[in-house]
Design brief:
Bound molecules: adenosine-5'-triphosphate
CATH topology: Rossmann fold
Pfam family, one: ABC_tran
Family: Belongs to the ABC transporter superfamily.
CATH architecture: 3-Layer(aba) Sandwich
Number of strands: 10
Protein name: ABC transporter ATP-binding protein
Largest sheet: 6 strands, mixed
CATH class: Alpha Beta
Order of helices and strands: EEEHEEHEHHHEHEHEEHH
Shape: globular
GO molecular function: ATP binding; ATP hydrolysis activity
Number of helices: 9
Strand content: 15-25%
Strand order of the largest sheet: 6-7-8-3-9-10
Oligomer: single chain
CATH superfamily: P-loop containing nucleotide triphosphate hydrolases
InterPro entries: AAA+_ATPase, ABC_transporter-like_ATP-bd, ABC_transporter-like_CS, ABC_transporter_ATP-binding, P-loop_NTPase
Structural class: alpha/beta
């Protein structure tokens, strides 16, 4: 089966190497969580995939489309949801979704039904006609997520989508992502909330110091650590091993 996302030798330096030759393959329909300590390079990897940052080396393929050679074609297939929601203050959620649908040249009636579905799923109905300028960060995050999903992407990339959301909003976002994966959409997200990775992700990748140091199902990661334990323990063990030059890397 064709991979939803395939990274090979992905590399990026700023004043120092930040992403060091990452190879990663995510299957279509998979829910994949990227974990790692602060500054490990997770956001940088996802920003390169989303076409916001040019890699120094490596390849990025999205459903077989070379994202570096055909960035527009790749962007049509995916959604990027940043941890810093950017929504126009002077628009209501419905106007914003209408605007985004216009950018994608989506048929008006399809756009309206998709916008209304997302507004309901994310609990934004009571605020659908209020200006976004007065919204809390959590509400803006949900509007930004809805905007990213209007064009029916096959791959959804999210950077810390649940940070700062209250329990109800987090549940709504998780439900939307679950519904999407059930419909065959692929999701890759970074999170520091290990319980979310544990419950939602089919596979987990651990990034430390710019490298993919381990990946697999929770059971596979447990087997690698060699004991029945929590994801938190596994994560801390793997990261500690990843920093040990003598350790085996994935
Ligand atoms: N535009 C930039 N210019 C210079 N350095 C950058 C830039 N973007 C990221 N970095 C650096 O690259 C490193 C990796 O950052 P990145 O945001 O990818 O980490 P992360 O794993 O997402 O961390 P966190 O979990 O804290 O969000 C950090 O040291 C960061 O300061």
């Amino acid at each position: 089966m064709q991979a939803a996302l395939s990274l090979s030798g992905l590399t990026k330096s700023f004043d120092r190497p930040v992403v060091r030759g990452v190879d990663l393959t995510i299957k279509a329909g998979e829910f994949y969580a990227l974990l790692g300590p602060n500054g490990a390079g997770k956001t940088t990897i996802l920003r390169m995939v989303a076409g916001l940052l040019r890699p120094d080396a490596g390849t990025i393929s999205i459903f077989g489309t070379d994202a570096l050679a055909d960035p527009v074609g790749a962007k049509r297939l995916m959604a990027w949801v940043s941890d810093e929601p950017m929504v126009y203050d002077r628009l209501t959620p419905l106007e914003y979704l209408d605007f985004v649908a216009g950018l994608w040249e989506i048929d008006a009636s399809r756009a309206r039904s998709s916008a209304n579905e997302l507004i309901d799923w994310l609990g934004l109905r009571p605020h659908a006609n209020e200006l976004c300028g007065g919204f809390s960060k959590g509400m803006l995050q949900k509007v930004a997520l809805a905007g990213a999903l209007v064009h029916d992407p096959k791959l959804i990339i999210l950077d810390e989508p649940l940070t700062g959301l209250d329990a109800g909003s987090a549940r709504q976002v998780k439900d939307v992502l679950r519904q999407k994966t059930e419909a065959g959409v692929t999701v890759i997200m970074t999170t520091h909330i290990l319980e979310v990775a544990e419950r939602m992700a089919e596979r987990i990748g651990v990034i430390a110091d710019g490298r993919l140091i381990a990946e697999g199902t929770l059971a596979e990661l447990r087997a690698r650590i060699g004991r029945e334990t929590t994801l938190e323990e596994i994560f801390l063990d793997l990261v500690a091993q990843g920093h040990d030059p003598g350790s085996e890397a994935a």
